Protein backbone atom coordinates (compact mmCIF):
# COMPACT_ATOMS: atom_id res chain seq x y z
CA UNK A 1 0.00 0.00 0.00
CA UNK A 2 2.83 2.38 0.85
CA UNK A 3 4.58 1.61 -2.44
CA UNK A 4 1.42 1.96 -4.49
CA UNK A 5 0.68 5.31 -2.84
CA UNK A 6 4.27 6.39 -3.46
CA UNK A 7 3.75 5.46 -7.10
CA UNK A 8 1.00 8.08 -7.30
CA UNK A 9 3.34 10.67 -5.81
CA UNK A 10 6.02 9.53 -8.26
CA UNK A 11 3.62 10.15 -11.13
CA UNK A 12 2.85 13.60 -9.71
CA UNK A 13 6.56 14.40 -9.33
CA UNK A 14 7.20 13.34 -12.94
CA UNK A 15 4.46 15.67 -14.15
CA UNK A 16 5.74 18.56 -12.04
CA UNK A 17 9.43 17.73 -12.66
CA UNK A 18 10.30 17.67 -8.94
CA UNK A 19 12.20 15.10 -6.83
CA UNK A 20 11.50 12.05 -9.01
CA UNK A 21 14.44 10.03 -7.68
CA UNK A 22 13.27 10.14 -4.06
CA UNK A 23 9.73 9.08 -4.96
CA UNK A 24 11.07 6.36 -7.22
CA UNK A 25 13.20 5.11 -4.31
CA UNK A 26 10.21 4.69 -1.98
CA UNK A 27 8.06 3.25 -4.78
CA UNK A 28 10.62 0.58 -5.73
CA UNK A 29 12.23 0.18 -2.29
CA UNK A 30 8.94 -0.38 -0.52
CA UNK A 31 7.99 -2.99 -3.10
CA UNK A 32 11.29 -4.80 -2.70
CA UNK A 33 10.87 -4.92 1.07
CA UNK A 34 7.41 -6.40 0.63
CA UNK A 35 8.82 -9.04 -1.70
CA UNK A 36 11.54 -9.80 0.85
CA UNK A 37 8.88 -10.39 3.51
CA UNK A 38 6.93 -12.69 1.18
CA UNK A 39 10.13 -14.66 0.49
CA UNK A 40 10.83 -14.86 4.21
CA UNK A 41 7.35 -16.26 4.80
CA UNK A 42 8.05 -18.99 2.24
CA UNK A 43 11.22 -20.24 3.96
CA UNK A 44 10.71 -19.42 7.64
CA UNK A 45 9.92 -23.04 8.58
CA UNK A 46 13.19 -24.32 7.04
CA UNK A 47 15.87 -23.12 9.51
CA UNK A 48 16.75 -25.54 12.30
CA UNK A 49 16.32 -22.97 15.05
CA UNK A 50 14.11 -22.69 18.13
CA UNK A 51 10.84 -20.82 17.77
CA UNK A 52 11.94 -17.91 19.98
CA UNK A 53 14.98 -17.31 17.76
CA UNK A 54 12.91 -17.52 14.58
CA UNK A 55 10.53 -14.97 16.10
CA UNK A 56 13.40 -12.58 16.79
CA UNK A 57 14.65 -13.02 13.22
CA UNK A 58 11.21 -12.36 11.72
CA UNK A 59 10.55 -9.29 13.85
CA UNK A 60 14.05 -7.96 13.13
CA UNK A 61 13.47 -8.20 9.38
CA UNK A 62 10.03 -6.61 9.75
CA UNK A 63 11.64 -3.84 11.83
CA UNK A 64 14.22 -3.26 9.09
CA UNK A 65 11.52 -3.18 6.42
CA UNK A 66 9.51 -0.53 8.22
CA UNK A 67 12.40 1.64 9.42
CA UNK A 68 13.91 1.83 5.95
CA UNK A 69 10.51 2.37 4.33
CA UNK A 70 9.75 5.17 6.77
CA UNK A 71 13.19 6.68 6.14
CA UNK A 72 12.58 6.60 2.38
CA UNK A 73 9.15 8.18 2.86
CA UNK A 74 10.58 11.00 4.97
CA UNK A 75 13.33 11.44 2.39
CA UNK A 76 10.78 11.74 -0.41
CA UNK A 77 8.74 14.36 1.45
CA UNK A 78 11.69 16.41 2.75
CA UNK A 79 14.46 15.79 0.22
CA UNK A 80 16.89 14.97 3.04
CA UNK A 81 19.17 12.10 2.01
CA UNK A 82 20.27 10.94 5.47
CA UNK A 83 23.85 10.11 4.46
CA UNK A 84 25.26 11.37 7.78
CA UNK A 85 24.06 12.54 11.18
CA UNK A 86 24.40 16.25 10.41
CA UNK A 87 22.13 19.04 9.31
CA UNK A 88 18.38 19.23 9.81
CA UNK A 89 16.31 17.10 12.16
CA UNK A 90 14.74 15.38 9.16
CA UNK A 91 18.19 14.40 7.86
CA UNK A 92 19.15 13.06 11.30
CA UNK A 93 15.90 11.11 11.51
CA UNK A 94 16.38 9.56 8.06
CA UNK A 95 19.95 8.61 8.95
CA UNK A 96 18.88 7.15 12.31
CA UNK A 97 16.08 5.08 10.78
CA UNK A 98 18.39 3.66 8.11
CA UNK A 99 21.07 2.94 10.73
CA UNK A 100 18.72 1.25 13.21
CA UNK A 101 17.25 -0.99 10.55
CA UNK A 102 20.65 -1.96 9.19
CA UNK A 103 22.12 -2.71 12.61
CA UNK A 104 19.19 -5.04 13.35
CA UNK A 105 19.03 -6.68 9.90
CA UNK A 106 22.52 -8.11 9.47
CA UNK A 107 22.72 -10.20 12.66
CA UNK A 108 19.22 -11.51 11.95
CA UNK A 109 20.20 -12.57 8.44
CA UNK A 110 23.40 -14.22 9.70
CA UNK A 111 21.43 -16.29 12.24
CA UNK A 112 18.86 -17.14 9.55
CA UNK A 113 21.62 -18.35 7.22
CA UNK A 114 23.17 -20.32 10.07
CA UNK A 115 19.81 -22.01 10.73
CA UNK A 116 19.40 -22.85 7.06
CA UNK A 117 22.88 -24.42 6.88
CA UNK A 118 22.24 -26.23 10.16
CA UNK A 119 19.11 -27.76 8.62
CA UNK A 120 21.17 -29.02 5.66
CA UNK A 121 23.51 -30.94 7.97
CA UNK A 122 20.73 -32.69 9.91
Can you give a write-up of this model?
With 122 residues, the chain is mainly α. Helices cover 81% and strands 0% of the residues. α2 runs antiparallel to α3 (51-78). The N and C termini lie far apart (40 Å).
Which descriptors apply to this entry?
mainly alpha, 122 residues
Distance between the termini: 40 Å
Shape: elongated
The proportion of strand residues reads under 5%
* Low-confidence runs: none
Main sheet properties? none
> What's the SSE pattern?
HHHH
Radius of gyration from the alpha-carbon trace, in angstroms: 17 Å
In short:
By secondary structure, this protein is mainly α.
Helices and strands in order:
Elements (H helix, E strand, L loop, with lengths): L1 H15 L3 H24 L7 H28 L10 H32 L2
